[in-house]
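Example record for the data management plan.
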Amino acid sequence: MLEFDWKQFKSGTDIRGVAVEGVPGQKYNLTDEAVRRMTAGFLLWLSNRLGKPANELKLAIGHDSRISADRIQKAVVDAMLAAGVHVLVCGLASTPSMFMITVDWDCDGSVQITASHHPYYRNGLKFFTKDGGLDGSDIEQILDFAAGNRAPAFGKGEAETVDYMKRYSEILRDKIKEGVKAEDYEHPLKGFHIVVDAGNGAGGFYATDVLEPLGADISGSQFLEPDGMFPNHIPNPENEAAMQSVCLATVRAKADLGVIFDTDVDRGGAVDERGDELNRNRLVAVASAIALEGNPGGTIVTDSITSSGLKEYIEQTLGGRHHRFKRGYRNVINEALRLNREGVNCPLAIETSGHAALRENYFLDDGAYLVTKIIIKLAVLRREGKKLEDLLAGLREPAEATELRMAISDPDFRACGNRVIDGLEQWAKSHGWQIAPDNYEGIRVSFGKGEGEGWFLLRLSVHDPILPLNVESDTAGGVRVILEKLHEYLKTCEGIDISPVESFLAR
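Corresponding structural encoding:
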């Protein structure tokens, strides 16, 4: 019997833990036994959901490039075989491909071994059914089964090694062929130079198996080889060093476009020919322009920290509707699904982190699919004598923006964080501040001319004892003006570390 709190493995809608022994300050907990029990919990959950015994299930398993992947894969497969499951072992694979295999090859479910952009010593399990990824409540039930050491009836399963990434790459190639409709149909990217930065994760296939066969020049691409120690930079489109690296590589190669993926390829970012990032609000803008083609007046769901200029761009330039929701890729996807069920035309759910899910692609957050759509648009625009950056002509970008993260020291960090936010709402009302009426998490406050000309959003982190504070202004010095106002309130709060705000103001 393992003696620890199984809830520690829950990370939103995933399972994550420390998968490498001997790392200073990190307690190794993602052991083989823990993995087998959580896998058995998933099998029991799925069997109950489908009304189908485990020994009739067909499941797939893949992993990213982390150094613990092979060990964890063996533990997962062992648990599946013990339950009588037919297992398709896919090896190195992207997370989105492990969803696609459920609908393309008729699997009952799948498991991806990944911890996204987290350090090399962490790893985890992400589960899929044909309906998509699981919700947080599903993960809780799986962990309850694991804690009780519950498993389906034993049987004798079968393991089959397959190469689904070959088929997945073919799907993406066909998408580009159909979207570009070039004279040379089989080589629609002939004449295009595209740099891919996979960060030594699972995304190297995109250069060699998707772009190059279509005629693209991929010279200058970097870090395509899988290496679970991530020796060059963190595979993360939100990481500043990673983005600088792909920007430099794109300019150095004189490429038409640069693309970057996170470790498991469920997020992507891009760089134009000048080396300027198509990331965060700019990426949301490009994705929105693409998604609203054929969906006039459609609704775009984003997370809560998108800029005021982006809202104007979606609604005034593109003629769509912007629905700002909560942080968390599963939150924006579920909100888009809800809106569509209610009859709202909502073709895209996207986070500024790079998670983008299009309705046409099962609302799957797939970095490779998003980049594929951007490349199609790039090719179509070239025929019209235009460039990708022309799409962003109507996007007003802030003069200043920053994110400050305040740690919560109170052991009950959620209660403390909510007290701070509730208190700030009362403070804002008493001082006549303009509270955003369309906010779904934390508190977002706007200020007019002479008052900072911008906004701040204070919210509680999805997973961590942190209060992230985003501040944006349309005028130089405006962020400082807004922070000075907010600092007067923060000084009255207990249980949080406001030094990041004070350090900013001391500059």
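Summary line stored alongside the record: The chain has four domains: 6-162, 164-276, 280-397, 400-505.
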